[in-house]
Amino acid sequence: MVKAVGRSGNESKETKKSKVKKSGKTELKSAKSSIKTATSGLGESVKGQFGDKVVEVLDNQTKLLDDF
Question: Which pTM was predicted?
C-alpha cells in the first residue's frame, strides 16, 4: 500500500511538472510576441536616439527570453 501511494505521488508530480513546463512555454511565446509587437509599434512611433534605445532594450529582452 505504501508503494502504491508513493508511485501515485511520483506520477502526480511528473504530471504537474509537465503541465508547468507546457504552461511556461505558452507564457514565453506570449511574452515574446508582446515584446515584438511593442518593438515594432514603438520603433515607428518614437524617433531619434530614445526610440533607438527603446528598440534596443526590447530586442535584448527578446534575446533574454530566447535564452531562457
Answer: 0.62
Q: Are 59 and 39 in contact (CB under 8 A)?
A: yes
Place of cell 504530471: 15
Q: What is the pLDDT of residue 25?
A: 87
The rounded distance, in Å, linking the Cα atoms of 56 and 19 is 33
In the numeric block, which cell numbers belong to residue 64?
Answer: 533574454
pLDDT at 37 exceeding the cut of 60 = yes
DSSP the chain: -HHHHHHHHHHHHHHHHHHHHHHHHHHHHHHHHHHHHHHHHHHHHS-HHHHHHHHHHHHHHHHHHHH-
As a whole number of angstroms, the distance between CA 28 and CA 11 comes to 26
Q: Name the nearest CA neighbour of 31 among 2, 56, 68.
A: 68
